[in-house]
Amino acid sequence: KNQVEQSPQSLIILEGKNCTLQCNYTVSPFSNLRWYKQDTGRGPVSLTIMTFSENTKSNGRYTATLDADTKQSSLHITASQLSDSASYICVVSVRGGYQKVTFGIGTKLQVIP
Amino acid sequence: GAVVSQHPSWVICKSGTSVKIECRSLDFQATTMFWYRQFPKQSLMLMATSNEGSKATYEQGVEKDKFLINHASLTLSTLTVTSAHPEDSSFYICSARDLEGGSYEQYFGPGTRLTVT
What we know:
The complex is a heterodimer.
Chain A: E1 4-7, E2 10-14, E3 19-25, E4 30-38, E5 45-51, E6 56-59, E7 62-67, E8 72-77, E9 86-94, E10 101-103, E11 107-112
Parallel strand pairs in A: 2-11
Antiparallel strand pairs in A: 1-3, 3-8, 4-5, 4-9, 6-7, 7-8, 9-10, 9-11
Chain B: E1 4-7, E2 10-13, E3 19-25, E4 32-38, E5 45-51, E6 57-58, E7 67-73, E8 76-81, E9 90-98, E10 105-108, E11 112-116
Parallel strand pairs in B: 2-11
Antiparallel strand pairs in B: 1-3, 3-8, 4-5, 4-9, 5-6, 7-8, 9-10, 9-11
């Protein structure tokens, strides 16, 4: 069964600090992995997308890594800001015509002053 | 980047009535759109895959007669919740796939909050 597990479920950090969110998956055959940021009551917004051959991708203060061998990904947030408070969702797509996706449950990040 | 809009952003309706939610891709053509439902503190759950010009494909456990999906054009898909009940109250999100360049990127709409009283 295709699964995406994220940890921690929730995290509170001080403004300005760094943090790393984890994503482990068992999805196969793998196509791509995406990290999304979802603010409360809003739709997810794409942060990064990585295919099998990519092992790191940056988007501003967000850096995602991918180890396709161990089926693990991480999202590192540098110098956190209050606006980073949101849920971060790891999404893995299956290779194939419809690119079926499996969502992680997300990590709820709260950045406090 | 590509933009997906949803309308309305929130709606309150009485039990037994029907509600239509629109999903539009504003600056790209989307042959495939997806409809998700998200309950509080849970992940997005795929309800159905909507393909332009053909019948939608529903996920197991989703009643196709209750959640009517129409994808009449390359930029518009609609979800109609028929005979809504309080347990249908949820956050409904659509996404559209932009196939240009083969990126398979999915862009999400802002969501529609449905409350059934």
